[in-house]
Amino acid sequence: CGRGPGGCRGGRTDMALRCAASLAAGRQPRGPRREGAMRWSSAAKPSAVKINEKASREKILTLESMNPQVKAVEYAGIKKPFTEVIKANIGDAHAMGQRPITFLRQVVALCTYPNLLDSPSFPEDAKKRARRILQGCGGNSLGSYTASQGINCIREDVASYIERRDGGVPADPDNIYLTTGASDGISAILKILISGGGKSRTGVMIPIPQYPLYSAAISELDAIQVNYYLDEENCWALNVNELRRALNEAKAYCNPKVLCIINPGNPTGQVQNRKCIEDVIHFAWEEKLFLLADEVYQDNVYSEGCQFHSFKKILYEMGPEYYNNVELASFHSTSKGYMGECGYRGGYMEVINLHPEIKGQLVKLLSVRLCPPVSGQAAMDIVVNPPVPGEESYAQFIKEKESVLNNLAKKAKLTEDMFNKIPGVHCNPLQGAMYAFPRIFIPSKAIEEAKAHKMAPDMFYCMKLLEETGICVVPGSGFGQREGTYHFRMTILPPVEKLKILLEKVKDFHIKFLEKYA
Q1: 187 with 78, same domain?
Q2: Distances in Å between the alpha carbon of 158 and those of 126, 188, 223, 296, 311?
Q3: Is the residue at 391 inside a domain?
Q4: What are the residues whose beta carbons fall under 8 Å from the beta carbon of 349, sequence distance 6 or more?
């Protein structure tokens, strides 16, 4: 079956179904047979062809006649020195064993099958939210299209959430756009920002290391990627002097007008302090840059002394000269945080100080994809409108939320400590998000072998790690890194006991790797 319509041909499908039905009933499926040299003709009547039930001939393809090289591959498979593949390469919380938040699933279940609203098994606060969401849907059904910008009452809830989060900073539902995960919003904003040709082509400043969505979107839109490097020696801090260097160099070959920030960082896990955010906002205001703030890990802050500050809040507190002028798009998602609901593809973006005519263009662009998944919109609503004190689901919700976040904090510290005990590995503190991005020493002999295989050295390292331990991580070259440094990204999502085993395996592998290529 193909991805598009018409991927399967009806005739073949019908025949396959008939054959399957015959086999299930213990019968051999009937089809055209040969009798002697007689040729099948569609014009021949069924009675003209006599079927000899006993006649059979030797199969052309047997184990003896098949390609021996194919058989050798099958039977000479090397037993791997591991019993399972541990997928530590992607931030998919539920796939790693994290349990869903009960209240979120209850509300989405009620929205999906409204008959459950009569069930005593569901709490009233979940039913109340489900009814409100369904009232905002055409035909009171989650199966209907919504406005391209999203269900109105959910956008109102997002605005209220932002106001609570930011200590009363006003938020307008009209500036809220529900999206298919944060990625959809980021891609849409980039698409509307890119213009010009030659030296006037839009340049987009992105952090290195970066989440590959940005480089992929920039490439797809034929924009110019402008790299600025995070300071690994200073816990992946963002330095405005580095921003200025990157901007000034880029002006020679493009028109830099977009600055992307990921806070907390992916893959680097740093949490930016207030002073850093103020410096970045001032830089954007001074250089007339459109700010994109990727804040999907805003709930994932673990280190003592670290706190999430939204760019929106700091922008407002810097005064009207900044708040009324700096164009800012901020992004959030159901996929990360304590929810981990990647599959729902729920998200939102808030865009402020957008030109009124551009707002219309943005809605037009978003209308091309009709609307975000409505179940994802419902899931996003529960993220921004969770149970509150006094409601019957509050105690369980808080218990589950804190359990997830406390567990992640424990695993962040465990991962940092264990990596830093391995010779030739250094890991900065995992202040937030859900990944470690350790720096690894790769001997020159291994680098030469990697070149011989036409592979980046850290890709070579990660492939060896996978082959020998079953642990799948992502090489740092996929995110970008300073020349001559090597890293890999690993999620901290596996359960604690499995994570300990994983880290011990990485330790043993790395020591053997150093010995082999020393």
Answers
A1: no
A2: 17, 19, 31, 14, 16
A3: no
A4: 176, 177, 179, 182, 185, 186, 188, 189, 329, 330, 331, 332
Is there a single domain that holds both residue 117 and residue 78?
no
Q: What is the pLDDT of residues 309-319, one digit of tens each?
A: 999 999 999 99
Q: Which two tokens stand for residue 235?
A: 């816990």
Beta carbons of 22 and 29 less than 8 angstroms apart:
yes
Polymer length in residues for the chain: 518
pLDDT-flagged residues of the chain (< 70): 1-55, 69-79, 81
Q: Is the pTM of this model over 0.90?
A: no
- Strand-strand pairing, 474-475 and 471-472: unpaired
Give 93-98 contacts, CB < 8 A, sequence gap 24+: 93/336, 93/339, 93/340, 93/342, 93/434, 93/493, 94/340, 94/341, 94/342, 94/343, 96/491, 96/493, 96/494, 96/495, 97/493, 97/494, 97/495, 97/498, 98/340, 98/404, 98/493
Beta bridge partners of 224: 203
* Phi, psi angle pair for 205, to nearest 5°: -85, 125
Helix (H, G, I), strand (E, B) or coil at 306: coil
Is the backbone peptide bond immediately before 114 cis, with ω within 30 degrees of 0? no
Same domain, 236 and 331: yes
